[in-house]
């Protein structure tokens, strides 16, 4: 059977399908629980969450499902930006703030404090799966998770990064192909050279690590799931497909943009957060791209643009919101998680039967 | 059976595997015939060939195989460049020419004359398959091919381009994913937005055209072939995998570079030809990239750099040669075409059996 493998056995779930831990409101406890209840692995995107709201969300998920689920954390980055760089960015952002009537945010120095607290809660709450993006936790932290039987999943965009994950003791690794929507997980080497298509990335990673490989990037239906397993992946991780689910907490403008976009409308841009991410090109991207190289890095720029993006959503200005999307948006549907997963399962089984 | 489908039936061949029509010497009659004799579809890359040498190569292929084969042509582009642009490029290229002792080439205005003669020969010689890159032939030309029972295959990098191919009456279309080595086939819209991964591109094209879709980009072994068919493709086209075949006419330095490269070393660059292409980053790319935007377009820049590249190969200077390669180079092997295809077939059958 296509769904019986190391991944589903180790996690004790029905289907080798992970819902990506997308940050900033998309992964409501309802979405996470719906995915786990449908036989996949739901993931709370806690990258931007403070410890207490994260704890509450975990408790809520536990009320909604008794199946395994995951929490995704961001490895913190201690970026520095000069007063001058920040002032230059504020100058560029001022017209948006004035139009939307939002004030200039204060920049607090990035720290690792929130991450430390998040890790404590993961362990206290015995979250079944903890995944990481933007780097690899220390060997010590990975060891701690293992002692609590928490499965640790990393994110890589090159074979080299997959090797680093394995060396740090991670249990599994998500290989994020260039098709994937949202932030690039690249943490070692150039972002440009790490835009490897899923068709290339998965078999090369499978050949070079001994831990299970999870394919991400461009997968939206049963064809993609079975193709990824054929390449040697033990499971898939899907993001964009879940953003438009009825249980998703994504903003209406974001959902509509995905549903109406074509594969040639998404671009890799760092103008929203300071870190390259794939999203649908809109006015903000077009206008800010000429200044891309001089903007502050992540997470400082993310903080600077945050209120613009959230207020733009409230005032229905999709042209100024980050519209993260992968390259397979023509296959997106507005449907329940249950319908989506049962359609994937039927499609996989149909392909297998008709071969 | 995995290899029984519209594609293999229509072409009357054993396996749904096309060897890409790579230009500039790689696709010797020996390579083309070896692929066709092994049950795939060999293709003469005639993009840069004049009519007479092309005719001779076709005759030679016919001596070496009685199986179907293809010829790939480039849709001509009538690019203009100012004296000033050309002089600026020559200034940048002078140090390479001096070091290699090659002279400045004369630029003849690009014309459609060679293409017209190539088309005449395709029809005279009743070549079984004619594929096209960099655009779509006129409806009249496609009609002519059909009258002679010549199968016409186009190249597309977006769903929109696939639609244009279908509208022009093409019989099949190759969907070139961003993983693919060599020149991008993009002919409508921005090159940057048309870097769609194979995992995304294939199912979206399959859903939007009625002609058979051929998957290209990142496919190197049986896993890739079966994954592409799972996505809905009727066949695959492989380029890089054949460059390192023992029957290939590629330069030794090119073959060695592919065999020793990793997936994160290739980049999209237009510094060799004026048109974006994927190859392994080397000194020429690094040094010329800062001037990329101001260089003349394709095919003018191609003519300007041609003698540098061929002389660099003779003098064993791989740092100045175009080292076209896809993103799955870790899977490349130096082996015969026969071994490569029989390994693909065994691997596909093993995956199917063990499911």
TrEMBL record, chains A, B:
Gene3D superfamilies documented for this protein: Aldolase class I (3.20.20.70)
The Swiss-Prot or TrEMBL record lists the needed cofactor(s) as: FMN
InterPro entries for the chain: Aldolase_TIM (IPR013785), NMO (IPR004136)
What family does this belong to? Answer: Belongs to the nitronate monooxygenase family. NMO class I subfamily.
One MF annotation (Gene Ontology) recorded for this entry: nitronate monooxygenase activity
Name recorded for this polypeptide = Probable nitronate monooxygenase
Q: Which domain of life is it from?
A: Bacteria
Q: Which CDD domains match?
A: NPD_like
Please verify whether the record's keywords include Flavoprotein: yes
One Pfam family linked to the record = NMO
Summarize the protein's role: Nitronate monooxygenase that uses molecular oxygen to catalyze the oxidative denitrification of alkyl nitronates. Acts on propionate 3-nitronate (P3N), the presumed physiological substrate. Probably functions in the detoxification of P3N, a metabolic poison produced by plants and fungi as a defense mechanism.
Alphabetically sorted, this entry's keywords are:
Detoxification, Flavoprotein, FMN, Monooxygenase, Oxidoreductase
Q: Is Transcription found in the keyword set?
A: no
Which chemical reaction does it catalyze? 3 propionate 3-nitronate + 3 O2 + H2O = 3 3-oxopropanoate + 2 nitrate + nitrite + H2O2 + 3 H(+)
């Amino acid at each position: 059977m296509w769904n019986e493998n190391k991944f589903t056995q180790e996690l004790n779930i029905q289907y080798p399908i992970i819902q990506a831990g997308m940050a900033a409101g998309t992964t409501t406890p309802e979405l996470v629980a719906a995915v786990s209840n449908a036989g996949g692995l739901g993931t709370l995107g806690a990258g931007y969450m403070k410890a207490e709201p994260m704890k509450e969300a975990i408790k809520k998920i536990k009320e909604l499902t008794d199946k395994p689920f995951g929490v995704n954390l961001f490895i913190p980055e201690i970026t520095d930006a000069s007063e001058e760089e920040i002032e230059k960015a504020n100058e560029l952002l001022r017209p948006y703030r004035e139009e939307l009537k939002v004030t200039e945010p204060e920049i607090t120095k990035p720290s690792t404090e929130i991450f430390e607290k998040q890790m404590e809660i993961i362990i206290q709450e015995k979250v079944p799966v903890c995944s990481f993006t933007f780097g690899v936790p220390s060997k010590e932290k990975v060891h701690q998770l293992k002692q609590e039987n928490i499965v640790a999943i990393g994110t890589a965009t090159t074979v080299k990064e997959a090797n680093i994950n394995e060396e740090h003791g991670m249990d599994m690794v998500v290989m994020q192909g260039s098709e994937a929507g949202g932030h690039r997980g690249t943490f070692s080497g150039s972002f440009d050279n790490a835009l490897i298509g899923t068709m290339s990335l998965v078999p090369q990673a499978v050949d070079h690590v001994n831990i299970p490989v999870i394919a991400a990037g461009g997968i939206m239906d049963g064809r993609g799931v079975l193709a990824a397993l054929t390449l040697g992946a033990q499971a898939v991780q899907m993001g964009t497909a879940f953003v438009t689910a009825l249980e998703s907490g994504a903003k209406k403008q974001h959902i509509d943009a995905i549903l109406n976009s074509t594969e040639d409308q998404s671009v890799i841009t760092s103008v929203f957060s300071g870190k390259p991410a794939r999203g649908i090109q809109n006015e903000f991207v077009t206008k800010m791209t000429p200044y891309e190289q001089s903007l502050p890095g992540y997470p400082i720029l993310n903080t600077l643009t945050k209120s613009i993006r959230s207020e733009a959503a409230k005032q229905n200005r999709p042209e100024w919101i980050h519209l993260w999307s992968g390259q397979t948006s023509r296959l997106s549907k507005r449907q329940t998680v249950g319908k989506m997963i049962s359609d994937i399962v039927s499609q996989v089984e149909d392909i297998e039967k008709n071969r």
